[in-house]
């Protein structure tokens, strides 16, 4: 059952990442990887909300597995984030490489904190 | 062995498609459908593998999230090897990269758990562990992808000499 929930969440999360990345990149003609940045920050916000909801007793561990481990886990990625950073650095865009790392970590953490606070305000 | 140097796989599959035209929208789905499907299958495999790792190596609340760190670092090392092989060595089918890199590795690694684990450590009264985890994952992931790509490129060049 638990495995199935993780699998179901990931089956939606991974293609959602791919489609969002494509849609975002099409609108931004820049070397900055806005697509991966978008899915990572969005995933951090959702997982923050969810973890706050679980802590407040408003969401079960099954929801956590489906939406947290499955959906948010597959929606966000560390491998593409670091690969795109490496490619920026190797292509001579060192500023963008550093900006990608700093912006992703700051925005991702910020989104996680906002998500948890929002969940506390809603359900605690 | 062929050596395709073009980064075809990085390009949009159909850059000239105008989605406002119904006929082209259908064509776009015909091109995108298989990619979306293999990304979904790969992502499911990667995410269940990550869940399995979290069951085999559980981390106590307030402890250093070693399992997620290793999962992310391993995924970054593999993507470093894979992208060099698929761009410089292996003229693979067009679905191999979305299946393996976008699907499996993307589903296996996670940014959301990384951020929320740091938040939990900070809020739970372990800010130093949180900060150490933040920096250690970044260093491990970036070092892994760089080392893996550089080493693979060297080995490919050495074999092709």
TrEMBL record, chain A:
Ligand binding (Na(+)): 73, 76
Subcellular location field: Cell membrane
InterPro entries cross-referenced by the UniProt entry: FluC (IPR003691)
Pfam families xref list: CRCB
Domain of life: Bacteria
Catalytic reaction list: fluoride(in) = fluoride(out)
Keyword check for Oxidoreductase: no
Membrane topology: Multi-pass membrane protein
Activity regulation field: Na(+) is not transported, but it plays an essential structural role and its presence is essential for fluoride channel function.
Main location: membrane
Regions that span the bilayer: 32-58, 65-83, 95-119
Functional description taken from the UniProt entry: Fluoride-specific ion channel. Important for reducing fluoride concentration in the cell, thus reducing its toxicity.
Family: Belongs to the fluoride channel Fluc/FEX (TC 1.A.43) family.
The protein's name in its UniProt record: Fluoride-specific ion channel FluC
Organism: Streptomyces carpinensis
Species classification: Bacteria, Bacillati, Actinomycetota, Actinomycetes, Kitasatosporales
From TrEMBL, chain B:
Main localization (coarse): membrane
UniProtKB keywords: Cell membrane, Ion channel, Ion transport, Membrane, Metal-binding, Sodium, Transmembrane, Transmembrane helix, Transport
Subcellular localization(s) per the UniProt record: Cell membrane
Topology class, membrane: Multi-pass membrane protein
Family: Belongs to the fluoride channel Fluc/FEX (TC 1.A.43) family.
Function according to Swiss-Prot or TrEMBL: Fluoride-specific ion channel. Important for reducing fluoride concentration in the cell, thus reducing its toxicity.
Alphabetized Pfam families for the sequence: CRCB
Source superkingdom: Bacteria
Segments passing through the bilayer: 35-57, 69-92, 99-118, 130-149
Binding positions for Na(+) per the UniProt entry: 106, 109
Region forming the signal peptide: none
Gene: crcB
Native organism: Streptomyces carpinensis
Mechanisms controlling activity: Na(+) is not transported, but it plays an essential structural role and its presence is essential for fluoride channel function.
Entry protein name: Fluoride-specific ion channel FluC
Catalytic activity: fluoride(in) = fluoride(out)
